[in-house]
């Protein structure tokens, strides 16, 4: 396993494109986490509140324990960016024949697939850490009374976010192995994510639509219950449902298994 990680690390550490994309994601995510509260309070709520007969309370995104839920929900909006990185670089393995070179150098087909699964795992872990540290710092700054229980009470949203990234990354991996061309794979991923599954879900009962892959992954972390939502009597789920965990995990296993099957059945 360590050998596979070293091989992939060598590939991506030498890729300027990878570092540009990853650093762009890092900066965008950090800026969004640090600036979301100020943006909502100064821009959106000020406009709504000026014409509202009801006083609109300010958002408090960073106070523990709610910061974990708030930031995990926000970060979930950026998972498509990580998926595009996965699709782009895995597809290039086929386009530039590096897969064939790896096999000629003694790597088995299964080892190649595992190296890409590990790539998804490490990228998801890195993204989770990018979420963790700014959220922790902002929570420490903004929370008036700090106790270990307050800080960790909703920390379970962090592993839920990691699972969401892993499941969606596995979906991106499957598309990359299926089409083997970065432009086609990116197009299909974007089309399914933004359009196709929404159309399918529209014609299905909610109970069945909840089992669609992207919907199940997104359902793990529901909309946070902000002060504004509570003011209008709207309440969202403040926990991670077991069903969504199981469905997302099942889809992740299916996509990874499909990748192994594709790799075994098709020429390289």
Structural notes for this entry:
With 268 residues, the chain is mainly α. The protein has one domain. The protein has helices at 2-13, 16-50, 66-76, 79-95, 98-104, 109-142, 148-152, 157-179, 182-202, 206-209, 213-219, 227-231, 242-265. Helix 2 (16-50) runs antiparallel to helix 4 and helix 8 packs parallel to helix 13 (242-265). The two termini are 22 Å apart.
Number of strands: 0
Please trace the helix and strand order, writing H or E for each element: HHHHHHHHHHHHH
| Morphology call | globular
What is the domain total for the residues?
Answer: 1
Tally of helical runs? 13
How confident is the prediction overall: mean pLDDT? 86
Radius of gyration, in Å, reads 20 Å
SS-based structural class?
Answer: mainly alpha
- Terminal Cα separation, in Å? 22 Å
Helix content range: over 70%
Poorly predicted sequence stretches spanning 5 or more consecutive residues: none
Main sheet makeup: none
Strand-residue proportion: under 5%
């Amino acid at each position: 396993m360590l050998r596979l990680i070293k091989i992939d690390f060598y590939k991506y550490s030498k890729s300027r494109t990878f570092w540009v994309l990853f650093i762009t994601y890092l900066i965008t995510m950090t800026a969004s986490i640090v600036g979301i509260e100020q943006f909502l309070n100064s821009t959106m709520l000020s406009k709504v509140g000026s014409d509202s007969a009801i006083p609109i309370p300010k958002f408090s995104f960073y106070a523990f324990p709610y910061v974990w839920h708030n930031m995990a929900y926000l970060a979930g909006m950026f998972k498509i960016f990580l998926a595009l990185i996965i699709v782009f670089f895995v597809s290039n393995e086929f386009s530039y024949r590096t897969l064939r070179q790896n096999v000629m150098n003694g790597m088995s087909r299964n080892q190649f697939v595992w190296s890409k699964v590990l790539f998804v795992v490490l990228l998801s872990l890195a993204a989770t850490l990018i979420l963790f540290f700014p959220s922790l710092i902002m929570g420490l700054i903004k929370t008036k009374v700090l106790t270990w229980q307050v800080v960790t009470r909703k920390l379970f949203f962090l592993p839920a976010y990691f699972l969401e990234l892993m499941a969606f990354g596995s979906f991106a991996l499957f598309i990359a192995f299926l089409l083997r061309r970065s432009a086609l794979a990116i197009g299909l991923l974007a089309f399914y994510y933004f359009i196709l599954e929404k159309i399918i879900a529209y014609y299905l009962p909610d109970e069945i639509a909840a089992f669609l892959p992207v919907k199940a992954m997104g359902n793990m972390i529901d909309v946070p219950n902000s002060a504004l939502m509570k003011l209008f009597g709207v309440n969202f789920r403040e926990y991670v449902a077991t069903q969504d965990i199981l469905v997302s995990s099942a889809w992740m296993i299916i996509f990874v298994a499909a990748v192994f099957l594709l790799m075994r059945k098709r020429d390289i």
